[in-house]
Design goal:
Blueprint lengths: L1 H22 L18 E3 L6 E3 L4 E2 L4 E2 L2 H8 L1
Antiparallel strand pairs: 1-2, 3-4
The structure holds zinc ion.
Length: 76
């Protein structure tokens, strides 16, 4: 019977410890919010002036361009 009493105390201690940990600020490992998926950054072709998303821009030595043709035309 003494064993059951010790077991109950241990379980109670663990329960108190766990519920106490849950309440401490910062212990919750919540993931940081994902980066906002807003509109993409728009860049301007240095040759013809068309605007396009930066992810689709062709990176030249000096500027960004809408296509490889305009890059070579501008930087040739
Ligand atoms: Zn262009």
């Amino acid at each position: 019977m003494k064993f059951l009493l010790v077991l109950a105390i241990v379980l109670l201690a663990v329960w108190v410890w766990r519920s106490g940990r849950r309440d401490t600020p910062g212990s919750g490992r919540s993931k940081p919010p994902p980066p906002p998926t807003g509109p993409q950054e728009m860049v301007r072709c240095a040759h013809c002036g068309v605007h396009l998303p930066r992810s689709e821009a062709v990176v030249g030595r000096l500027n960004l361009y809408c296509s490889a043709e305009h890059r070579s035309a501008a930087e040739a």
